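tool_call: predict_structure(chain=1)
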Amino acid sequence: MTLTGKVALVTGAAQGIGRSMVEELLAKGASVVMLDINSEKGKACKETQDIKFGSEKTLFIHADVTNRDQMKDAFKKTIDHFKKLDIMINNAGINNEKHWKKTINVNLIGTIQGTYLALEYMKTQNGGEGGVIINMSSLAGLMPAAYQPSYTASKYGIVGFTRAIAAASNAGEYGVRINTICPAFVDTPLLKSVDNEEYMGEYFKYKENIKEMMNQYGILEPSLVAEGMINLVEDTSLNGAVMKVTCSEGIHFEEYAPQYEPKM
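tool_result:
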């Protein structure tokens, strides 16, 4: 897929991985709708991108990915403003072991909800032009992250959901490719949550152990994850792919045995 003239929607777009993805999409010629729960940082991000790419290329919308009404409104505003949607990036995520239900709601339920809302507009059966959905998981979605069980569960869920809905899209001929990215530790504000007892709860006492794991695996720059996202968007052969991004191996893929493809 060539990105020039395409329209992308990115959740959790104001900082970290999301912001890097916004910048890469704009640099490739796409227009980008930036969703974030943090209005102050979201507006600041838009102002920065507008200086580089022009105000007509971006739109910021305040939205909580767990709030269906806000998300439905965000999609409507996207279509009203740019007239179409080609790329959906479900990036918003948190790490809160103390309030584990919130972690599941934001990371997993928010991703599932964002995917289904995007499909309503993108599926060729609904008059859409097809496109790409990318769901942000984590290396914790492939191997358990010690001291982060709820976060691990949410990211495992994203991998499973993405592979299953990708197979359904293929069988149902939705015209939409759906892939996921599983990075290791990334230099983002989320990474600093292990230093906050309010987020880590009973696992806060293991913060030094988690830091040792970070030292072992290394810390990625968000730009490398954004590069992987661009690869998933541009390579039209990829559907149901699980991309891994690590310091030791860079961008590579999890290998699976062929899965059952249902007929619909």
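agent: The first strand starts at residue 7 and ends at 11. Proceeding to next step.
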